[in-house]
Write a structure and sequence with these properties.
Elements lengths: L1 E3 L4 E3 L13 H15 L9 E7 L2 E7 L12 E8 L5 E7 L5 E13 L14 E11 L5 E5 L29
Antiparallel strand pairs: 1-2, 3-4, 4-5, 5-6, 6-7, 7-8, 8-9
């Protein structure tokens, strides 16, 4: 759901169906892609396949979509992601359209730890979450760019019971005798 208070509009629906957004569709789509690196919303789909390639100091993961037709063996290349070999963090991503042309290129930089170090049940220290504090996206269609720089990211702070509201149960209505 996207609220546009200055326009007096609220748009809702799937990201894949943004036709009613008009001129806002492309900037919104690019912004969602940029934020995917922080939120982790770009999971590989069930009908998608992957191929891992060693490329210099990085690994590249190619993500292919479903076959276009039952008789086809070709799968369209949808995304390419580059991982740092040492940290295994995604440092670059390319989104491609159905014709194999670049739709957007995203760079993830300035990775920092967020959250507290936890000690899990197995006794080995758990690494804190690493997230990019700088994200740069270039539109492959030449319609602009998105740059996001975070000053602080706070991970799921613990809620105390006094911070939560209370839910009271209404007594149920007495059953009528028949």
């Amino acid at each position: 759901m996207l609220r546009l208070p200055t326009m007096g509009r609220v748009l809702s629906g799937r990201q894949s169906d943004m036709s009613e957004m008009g001129k806002l569709a492309r900037p919104f789509e690019l912004s969602v892609w940029a934020m995917g690196g922080v939120l982790g919303t770009s999971a590989i789909g069930k009908d998608e396949t992957t191929k891992l390639v060693e490329e210099g100091t990085r690994y590249r993961l190619d993500v292919f979509g479903p076959r276009p037709g039952a008789a086809s063996t070709d799968r369209p290349l949808l995304r390419r992601m580059w991982f740092d070999r040492r940290t295994l963090l995604v440092v670059q991503e390319e989104r491609l359209n159905g014709a194999g042309e670049m739709d957007a290129s995203i760079q993830y930089e300035d990775f920092r730890s967020i959250g507290e170090t936890a000690l899990p049940a197995n006794g080995s220290p758990d690494a804190r979450l690493l997230r990019p504090f700088k994200i740069s996206l270039e539109d492959g269609r030449g319609q602009g760019s998105v740059q996001v720089t975070f000053h602080e990211i706070i991970s799921n702070q613990e809620l105390k019971s006094e911070e939560l509201g209370r839910v009271s149960r209404r007594p149920s209505a007495p059953e009528s005798a028949s």
